[in-house]
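Researcher: Predict the fold of Chorismate mutase.
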Amino acid sequence: MSSTTTTATTPAEQTGAHTDEAAALIGGARERIDALDDRIIGLVQERMAVSAVIQEARITSGGRRVNLSRETAVLSHYRDALGKPGTALAMTLLELCRGRV
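Model: Structure tokens for Chorismate mutase follow.
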């Protein structure tokens, strides 16, 4: 018969903190980040749905699926707000929102 040993860890060890006080702060902040991530994912999904409506209307009216001048404006907006990483984030969002129609 084999036994499995589970090593119990303290909150400080789980977070990489050196004190329980710091671990508690980190734990609470991580919960907040998780909640923010859930909201961000929901907003991205909502953006994808709105983008699909726009693309459908554009295609139905005889236009192209993608409006490059609008994408350039989105890229500039994110870059201006968040710097160079904002451009990468905007590119990811645009990629997620393209071609759903």
